[in-house]
Amino acid sequence: MPYKVTPWYRRKRGTQVKTDYACQHTRSVVKHRTERKSSCKSVSQVQAQATEAMAEPAYTIPEFRQRTTEGTEEYQRVATNVSKGLSVIQEEIHRMRMVTKAQVDSLAIQREVKERMTKRTDWLDEIPKMPDFVLALRPHTVWEKTPIKLFCTVQGNPRPVVKWYKGGVPVDPLSAPGKYKIENKYGVHSLIISRCVVSDTAEYSAVATNPHGTATSMATVTVKRPAGGGELCHLGLVPHLTEIHPSKLEISLLDRFSISFGQEGGAISLMCTMVVVPDLPNVPPIAQWYRDDKLLKPSQLVEMFVGGGVARLTLPHLAKDDEGLYTLRIFTKDGTAEHSAYLFVSDAAPSAPGAPGAPMSVKAYDVNADYVLVAWKPPNTVNEAAITGYFVDRCEAGGDTWVQCNDAPVKVCKYPVHGLSVGHSYHFRVRAVNSAGISRPSRKSDKVTALDAAENERLQVIKIEGKYDIVIKDDDLEGYVTIPGEPTDLHASEVFKSYVVLSWKPPSPRGRAPLWYVIEKCIAGTGAWQRINTAVKLHSPRYPVFDLQDGHKYQFRVYSVNMYGSSEASAPSGPVQKVDEDGAEVPIGVPSAPGQVVATRNTKSSVFVQWEAPKVPKNLIGYYIDGRVVGAKEWFPCNHKPFRHNRFVVHGLTPGESYVFRVQAVNIFGLSDESQESSPIAVEPALATPSAPFGITMLSSDGSSITLAWKSPKHCGGSKVSAYYIDRRDADGLVWKEVNLEAVTERVCTVDNLTEGNFYEFKVQAANMAGVGVPSVPSAPMKCEAWNMEEPGPAYDLSFSEVRSHSLVILWKAPFYTGASAVTGYFVDMAKKGSSEFTTLNEEAVSHRYLQVSGLEEGETYVFRVRAVNTKGVGKASQVSEPVCARALPGTKEIEAGVDEETGDIFLSLEACEICEESKFVWSKNYKPIGDCPRVSVTSKGRTSRLTFTNPDKDDLGKYSVVVTDTDGVSASHTLTEDALNTMLELSHAIRHPVVPLKHGLNYEILEKGHVRFWLQAVKLSPSVSYRFIVNDKEVTSGEGQKISHDVATGVIQMTVDLFTRANEGTYTVQIHDGKAKTQSSLVLVGDVFKAALKEAEFQRKEHIRKQGPHFSEYLYFTIADDCTVMLACKVANVQKDTAFRWYKEEDEIVPETPPNVMSGACALPIPLFSRKDQGVYKAVLSDNRGKDTSTFDISGQAFDDIINAIAQIAGASASELVLQCTPEGIRLQCYMSYYTEEMKTVWKHKESKIASSEKMRIGGTAEMAWMQICDPTDKEKGNYSIEISDGVKTHTRTFDLSGQAYTDAYEEYLRLKAAAFAEKNRGRVVGGLPDVVTIMEEKSLSLTCTVWGEPTPEVTWFKNEQEVASNEHTKVTFDGGKFASLVINKVTPDDSGKYSINVRNKYGGEFVEITVSVYRHGEQIPEPKLGQAKTPTATPAATPAATPVPKSPAPPSKTPTPTPSKSQTPAPSMKSPTPASTPSSTPVPKSPTPSQRSPTPASSRGAKSPTPTRSIKSPTPPRK
Question: What is the pTM of this model?
Answer without folding.
Answer: 0.47
